Write a sequence for this structure.
């Protein structure tokens, strides 16, 4: 059995990429990136990086994002398998 | 209704013209500094005061230019207000580097001209290191205070990359130096050189996440 790769480790793409519905949910709520950044108390760069899947948030931040949309974490972040 | 279809790019959209002018001004400033240094040395006008004026002017110019992209982006409304940890970092790091630039040349000239001894010699010799220690402290405090995990990850990657560049350069140069093939460089130069390595390191990190 092969080693389980660490999510986001190294330059290579993780075998099971984590996707998210942040952008769709944000569109539904009619929030801008700047507004959601202010609500989460993070930078707009962070919102962009998470939305585009270039940065996987920590578990606490992922929970905060899900809670902001009133969703379960698995409704916002999921494996694309 | 909020603009949901916002840019997915994290770099402020300032346009090609702005960046051409900005890099041009940066290059002119650097050429002015190198030219000024060459002129002062060859015309025997080099002293602690002329050296300090040149390095001070260059440092202030670099400082003024380096904040222009931020202010330009704010004027165009494409960036949010600078986050508090980053603002504090800038307010600690930039004055420390300016103080370093203003201390280094007089310390060297004074040591060569006045040839101090005893406690004074130690005080003058250590003087340029003190602002650099404050600059290192500013970096350490930034890591402690930054609560945005993405920005912290970006900073970590940039700093690690710059450290890697610096170690590679120092190792190669050290051996060339040992065999007398290149001029000897004092070890204090490692921090300013590391700070220079941050430019390509940040460019690579930004490109990765863009």
């Amino acid at each position: 059995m092969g080693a389980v790769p660490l999510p986001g480790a190294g330059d290579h793409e993780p075998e099971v990429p984590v996707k998210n519905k942040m952008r769709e949910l944000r569109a539904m709520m009619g929030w801008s990136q700047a507004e959601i950044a202010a609500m989460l108390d993070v930078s707009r760069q962070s919102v962009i990086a998470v939305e585009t899947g270039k940065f996987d948030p920590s578990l606490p931040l992922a929970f905060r994002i899900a809670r902001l949309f009133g969703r379960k974490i698995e409704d916002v972040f999921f494996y694309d398998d | 209704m909020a603009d949901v279809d916002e840019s997915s790019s994290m770099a402020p959209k300032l346009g090609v013209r702005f960046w051409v002018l900005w890099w041009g001004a940066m290059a002119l400033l650097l050429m002015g500094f190198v030219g000024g240094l060459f002129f002062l040395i060859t015309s025997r006008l080099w002293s602690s005061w002329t050296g300090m004026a040149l390095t001070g002017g260059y440092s202030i110019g670099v400082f003024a230019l380096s904040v222009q992209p931020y202010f330009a982006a704010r004027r165009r409304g494409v960036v949010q207000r600078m986050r508090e940890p980053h603002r504090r970092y800038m307010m600690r790091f930039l004055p420390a580097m300016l103080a370093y630039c203003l201390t280094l040349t007089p310390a060297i000239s004074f040591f060569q001209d006045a040839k101090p001894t005893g406690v004074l010699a130690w005080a003058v010799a250590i003087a340029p290191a003190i602002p650099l220690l404050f600059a290192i402290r500013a970096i350490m405090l930034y890591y402690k205070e930054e609560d945005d995990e993405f920005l912290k990850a970006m900073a970590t990657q940039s700093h690690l990359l710059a450290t890697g560049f610096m170690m590679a350069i120092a190792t190669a140069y050290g051996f060339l130096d040992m065999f007398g093939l290149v001029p000897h460089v004092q070890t204090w130069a490692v921090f300013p050189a590391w700070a220079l390595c941050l430019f390509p390191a940040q460019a690579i990190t930004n490109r990765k996440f863009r």
Residues 47 and 72 of chain A are 18 Å apart (CA to CA). Chain A touches chain B at residues 23, 26-27, 30-35, 37-38, 41-46, 48-52, 54-55, 57-58, 61 (CB under 8 Å).
